[in-house]
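Quarterly update from the structural biology core.
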Amino acid sequence: MCPINVSEGRSPAVLEALAAAAGHDLLDVHTDADHHRSVLTVVGEKAARAVAGVAVERIDLRRHRGAHPRLGALDVVPFVPWGDTSLEEARQARDRFVRWLGEVLGVPAFAYGEDGRPTLPELRRRAFSPLRPDAGPAQATTRSGATAVGARGPLVAYNLWLAQADLALARSIARTLRTPAVRALGLAVGDQVQVSCNLVEPAEVGPAAAYEAVAALAPVARAELVGLVPAAVLDAVDRRRWAELDLDADRTVEARLARRG
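Predicted structure, tokenized:
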């Protein structure tokens, strides 16, 4: 499985082209116009490469303005083991994709993961200086930037919008939340603010725990699940809270795989 993050959240034509490239292997599309970003969850390397090709062809960072930090047009491509697939197989898929991206599409590609590679936050801070791409040109192009390609376990991308549009407060809360299990940023999104989280150990800190941690520090206007969630994470949450937490049985990886057939 591969939840591909692209730096496009506003053009229907480009989003339709990206989805069409994935075809039957597309499980989900989550789009945010303020972030100017979309997450396309796909199955398999073939679909990931097809989406990557369209992203590099159709997205121009020179005209990009969005709330979310980014490295490139094709921003993050994480390979996530699922079912009988092992993390080692995900790493092999990552490494093949890195070589292909650099050699065929000519995009600087950085590998990340837990096998001696930098973490994704480290890549965002240190790409090109001092870290060098694992494949592709030594410098980013102004049009396409660079891409982070990872191998990791399942995580949950989760946003919590504050009732008060106070960016300093959102950033303070994000700093408080950060642990090995949670990565968080405080972002201004339109005329609102949010605490944007990656729950990297969702069995340890899931959506309900993240919501409660933020709500203990400031009123929460609403929650937003980005993409899909593993069924085990959903099942750990009281069903009566699903609506409040923006969760639903149809938005699990398992449900979408079953639909795909």
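The first strand starts at residue 2 and ends at 6.
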